[in-house]
Amino acid sequence: MKSPFAYQPRSRPLQLASPSAAVAYLGALAVVAFLYSNPLVLAAAGVAAVVAGLLAGARRAVEFALKMGLSLAVLVVVVNALVVNRGETVVARLGDFPLLGPVDVTFEAIVAGLSMGLRAAVVLVLGAVYSACVDPDRVLRALRPLAGRSALTATLVSRLVPVAAADAARLRDAARLRGPSAAEVGKAPLARRLLAGSLDRAVDVAATLELRGYSLKAPRPRNRRSRSRYDRRFYAVAALLLAAAVAAKALGADDFQTYPGVEIGLGPATLALSAIVALSGLAPLRRKPKRHRPAADGTKTALYGSKSSRRQERREVARV
Amino acid sequence: MSELAIRRGAAPALAVRGLSYAYPQAAQPALEDVSLEVAPGEFVLLAGRSASGKSTLLKAACGLVPHFHGGEIEGEVQVADLDAIAAGPGELATAVGYLAQDPETQVVSTTVAAEIELPLEMRGDEPADRARAVEEVALALAIPHLLDRSVDTLSGGELQRVALAAALVTRPRLILLDEPTSQLDPVAGDELIWLLRRLNEEWGVAVLLAEHRLERCLAAADRVVAMEAGRLSFDGAPADFLAWARNADPALETPAARLFSLAGIDPLPIGVRAARQTLRGMGVAHPPNRSSRRVSDPHPQGPVLQVKGLWVELDRGEDPRDVLKGIDLTIQRGERVALMGRNGAGKSTLLRTAAGLHPPAAGKLTVDSIALLTQNPGDYLVRERVGDELLGDEGMAALRVVGLEDKIDADPRDLSGGERQRLALAIALAGRMKGENLPDLVALDEPTRGMDHARKGELVDLIDRLSGNGAFVDREATKSTGAAVVVATHDVEFASEFADRVVLLGDGVVIADGPMAEILSGGWYFATEVARVLDLPGVVTPEQGAAALREEAP
Prior knowledge:
The complex is a heterodimer. By secondary structure, chain A is mainly α.
């Protein structure tokens, strides 16, 4: 089964954008997540990441990342609550534990864990959207002029990891199909077999690369710049996000304190930034193209356009 | 020699003189004193049994031997005026393209466009030239719609075309192909061969094609070269090759040629068209509505597999898809069933569902005990001694069934391909036998990939023994009763040799189910070569065809 995070080409703005534009957009959201601890801003970044992934058609990747991210967030909350005793509001006194000592679960530690967990979940979802929507070949080709061999190695890894996963699934199936009187397959023999298979594949891939001319010392030509009509939009949204994040930070939008007591700033700057961040998730929205139909005189008329074009169309129909 | 002279065809596309080669630490040389020339624009078919040296010769022609594999080499190999022994595969990449058996191992990029463009990028071509070359090769191979696809969403046939496009995009003078159709269904396999012929005619690319299923490509070839134990054993025209094979190596005969041999008709035909022309010239005519030689069900021994309204949904990373759509099927003990259909029709899914690897989405499947051997027997072999793979008396009983009891101390890696396959089957059987009796159902998924005719014959014998219909060597000793044997296969000639029933799947539904002779004589793609020549209902094998011709002979 294919990994939900594997890149899937689609005719959506995020996939059609050049890798640098897509990375700028998703990277700007990640910067917001790292720059802020305020749960409202983090939640807005999470909403933006999920909406962007859904609009880009990466539903499965978003779902898997959400499951993983929320599990991770819960784990962070639990661990933080158990190991951090700071905070004024004790929710539960769990007594003495051998390594931890006296464990007091505080409301403040839970909120702090929630903030960290939320950040981890947002970054995971952004990573999943990147993985499922940005073509690794184009990213690595863009990097080739800087580090050709490293980029090619990364390309091969990005190709061989799912292949190794498929090999592992096949070996697991074969292990399940062994008769009850066949020797049991432990994890070690299976891992050894997988490793041997991976080495065989690596040899095959190396042979293929040789045949494709990898060892040629030809000068690497410059790559054509892969632009798309969506690039400007993503660059603009990324710039807006970064500018708003920095400006709001300067205005104190990240007013969030957990110890000794919880204080969450919900001032105008925080609310405005959260709104901007959440709305930035709409950047991969695909606008419906204007449909045209020929008018009576043979010219094409916009059917679903602006109010003025609809008025124009009505006038033309009336004239006919 | 100038590039222009090479392009005009002054130099041979491939010239091999006195080539001998041994792999590192090999006891025997893989090639011995091989001399061969392939002219520009020539289509040469390389025939021979497994391990006869075909693949090694192809690897020598593209520089992988000795540059990649090492070993000792003597002689000369020239590709388009380049010394292939001195130059590496990278330098030869602009003059020669190479396509191996398994397309999965030949793809290194994530998307189709990137994969095809890679050789040009390595060569240092400018972006505009690359874009044009990719577009043209995609058009030539009819895959422009695949350019933006991810490689892991492609079918086997599509992937093979993409690998061929990557091999052809530099416009090489020579393309080398090592059993490129072995994993393809008959439709995709035939398409690939005729695509090669078209490229050969229109682009002038010389083709050197190694294949086991000669009936598929003999008609497209200008010349045939046969190999045996690392040496050239024949080099000549296709018709002469058939005459030679009749006496020297009957395992290389095509079914149509064998039909004519048995019926005493000359000249031997290189394909269906030639066979029909010869028969028409002889005045052999066939009544179009000759009654079918329908075989009555010889196995009323009770059902071992019952499938009722079976739906199976698989999620392959995109949206979940119904692979089986309400299948009804009953298989009786002792039946030998060929499960056929194009790639993706649902053959493997049906077998894997029966073996419990996929849960049904709806419907019912009943089977008491089943042993399934999947497409890669090597996946079952994880120990370094045959005896360590199987435990106790039941393990030994399974080893006896497949005839490997004398290999108990061998390392599985030292076994031949056929023996490894039998060992994997023993591992699947072990403990599923009731005493010495086989399980109800033995299922084999594409067991003939890359097999020559002789090894397929051994497999037919094994299937006969498993089903209790053949001469079971140890039958007295083991008191074994036969199992139903279901084999998913693309190989119609193989199916005609072992099966008594064929179930044809198409897009997840059963589209034909009946006696083998009836199903394999009633179509174009899923029909044997003899059936296509004679077009007689129920006549599928050379023996049946020869008998029919003797009846019809004026």
